[in-house]
Design a protein that fits this description.
With 591 residues, the protein is an alpha/beta fold. It contains 21 helices and 14 strands.
Length: 591
């Protein structure tokens, strides 16, 4: 029996809490009412009440009579042409296409969430003046995704519009940007600069680059800086421009070279400038600050660089016109530890566990060639499922690409948590499927094909314990991560986005790929624990995460007052240790 989704205090729907009992993905509130009260749209007789009948099935299976007759006529004509002219050869493809059109109807009306109230602007996150021809995913994705219960705060919406104006006024191509570049090239620090900048640089995998860019953007919002993204590693090809009428890409003629080669030892890092007395936080006299500094926040940063998350140091950094933020992870939880940012962050994000959910959906829209991969695959393989279960599998040890222990971990997780039905052993009585019963589709994202092949064969060769049908799909299997290869990153971004369209997610611990997918989806995942011993299956195999927020793998653990290493996470009530990285930090909602 399908149940209406309830919204709990923390903003999570019952659909998330008990995914085995969710409403079908095609159901809306209007569907629920019409299924009980409205007459059948294809018959003059009233529709009988049937709670086992999937919501919205009538809308999928019943099309206007004109459409049916028209497509039937086209099929008949094509068939006649084939038989009379060319025999029975190649044109069968045309007949198959016409049959697909007959099943689907025209436009996007057949997509799972096309019947929902349109929310193309994502509750106000997106500005409405963008031409719908400039970025297809920005305007079409709402038909592929369920409406989120998480709404952006009015303050966040207002700050986004203000930041867009800042990007136009001070970004590349503006007079202000030209003056800032002249001062930087001359090595001069602008006093009371009209525009300040933060440049995001990350040379890691795509998931890391996305999380680093989101972190830099939040810092830009908090400090009124223009955000510029290093265009290396395909960042200029994978995403649409997020800011209307402005760019977020660092121009190729930027006068500072070698940003990709910044290390912790560079003299221009903030920590080394403090160490070498180029900068002094405690000075009572006016200090001449450099035009540019590196905020080095990668995994190997030292105590001096960790002072980025201290109030006094932020006041000093506010006088530096150009900050180059070199980071490789999601550092947003660290910004919540800066006392001077606390009030603004609380106004921007009343729901602390939805920060990346809002920032990610605002910033990261697949470029048109990536969106073509996403939309084609979704329509062909995923759209008709009433529940999508995404499994993101990252194998960190190359020798575990065909590990039966990891395969057992996956099946143990999805069966123990009742995310997928178990399969029957040989000789057990087969359950007759209920007409119109739940259909589930599994989307597997992994570099390795072996796990997909085993899971797909299992659900094909063995019936399920409850009679449900389960389809299993995997878009690609690149075998290993290929840094810097554009085609690889294109597929990776497409698969992250496909995962974010799922209703239920199972992810691999430590994986930034999974972090991005769960944040965009607005779904709290089940996390498969990283094995300590690769010859055994972890017990338990997985656990529900504490929130959908990504984990900050390398939090500063630095006491700004005492100026030495210390665990200060407990001083912020909405920060908790991560389920997958025990020393990591993540934002959580109210208990």
């Amino acid at each position: 029996m399908h149940r209406k989704a309830k919204v709990f205090a923390e903003g999570v729907t019952e659909q998330e809490t008990s995914p085995a009992a969710v409403l079908p993905r095609t159901a809306t509130a209007r569907d629920l009412l019409e299924a009980e009260e409205a007459p059948d749209q294809c018959s003059m007789t009233p529709r009988k009440k049937n709670k086992k009948r999937p919501m919205g099935a009538g809308e999928r299976r019943c099309r206007p009579a004109v459409n049916l007759l028209l497509v039937a006529f086209v099929v008949a004509v094509l068939l006649a042409v084939v038989l009379l002219v060319d025999g029975v050869g190649v044109p069968a493809v045309w007949i198959a296409a016409a049959g697909a059109q007959l099943r689907r109807g025209s436009g996007y009306a057949w997509l799972p969430y096309a019947g929902n109230a349109p929310d193309k602007l994502l509750g106000g996150l997106l500005a409405d003046e963008v031409d719908d021809k400039t970025c297809r995913s920005r305007h079409e994705s709402s038909a592929y995704r369920r409406n989120t219960p998480r709404r952006p705060s009015p303050h966040l919406v207002a700050r986004l519009r203000r930041h867009e104006e800042l990007q136009r006024r001070c970004g590349p191509g503006s007079d202000a940007y030209g003056r800032a570049i002249q001062q930087l090239s001359a090595g001069r620090s602008a006093v009371d600069a009209e525009c300040k900048y933060v440049v995001s640089v990350c040379n890691r995998g795509l998931g890391n680059r996305i999380l680093a860019a989101a972190s830099a953007f939040l810092y830009a919002l908090l400090t009124d800086r223009v955000l510029l993204i290093d265009r290396g590693n395909g960042m200029d090809e994978l995403f649409c421009e997020p800011f209307p009428g402005a760019t977020w890409l660092l121009p190729p003629d930027f006068p500072v070279a070698g940003l990709a080669n910044i290390t912790v030892d560079a003299a221009e890092t903030y920590g080394n400038m403090l160490k070498n007395k180029v900068l002094t936080v405690d000075s009572k006299e006016p200090v001449q600050v450099p035009a540019l500094a590196y905020a080095y926040l990668e995994h190997d940063y030292g105590d001096g660089d960790k002072r980025f998350f201290c109030d006094d140091d932020q006041r000093l950094m506010s006088s530096i016109q150009w900050l180059v933020a070199r980071m490789d992870t999601y550092s947003v939880p660290g910004l919540f530890q800066v006392p001077s940012f606390a009030d603004e962050l609380a106004a921007l994000f009343p729901e602390r566990d939805a920060v990346f959910h809002h920032l990610g959906r605002y910033l990261f829209h697949p470029a048109d060639h990536v969106w073509s991969l996403v939309s084609r695959y979704y329509r062909a393989y995923l759209a008709r499922a009433e529940q999508l279960v995404g499994i993101q599998l990252r194998v960190f040890d190359s020798e575990q690409g065909k590990s039966p222990h990891i395969l057992r971990q996956i099946t143990s997780c999805v069966w123990k948590e009742k995310l997928l039905p178990e399969v029957l052993a040989a000789g057990e009585p087969v359950i007759t499927p209920v007409p119109g019963g739940m259909s589930r589709t599994v989307l597997i994202a992994s570099l390795r094909p072996w796990f997909y092949e085993r899971i797909k064969s299992m659900y094909w060769e063995q019936p399920t314990a409850n009679g449900e049908d389960v389809g299993v799909h995997q878009p690609s299997h690149e075998e290993y991560q290929q840094f810097g290869r554009r085609s690889h990153d294109t597929k990776a971004w497409a698969e992250m986005y496909l995962l974010s369209l799922c209703d239920v997610l199972v992810t691999s611990g430590w994986s930034t790929f999974g972090y991005v997918a769960q944040g965009l989806a607005g779904v709290t995942p089940w996390v498969m624990y990283r094995p300590v011993n690769f010859s055994e299956t972890p017990d338990p195999p997985c656990g529900r995460d504490v929130s959908m927020e990504p984990c900050f793998h390398t939090p500063p653990m630095y006491d700004c007052k005492l100026k030495h290493t210390a665990d200060t996470a407990r001083s912020v009530p909405h920060l908790r240790r991560c389920e997958d990285v025990k020393w990591g930090l993540k934002l959580v909602g109210p208990k």
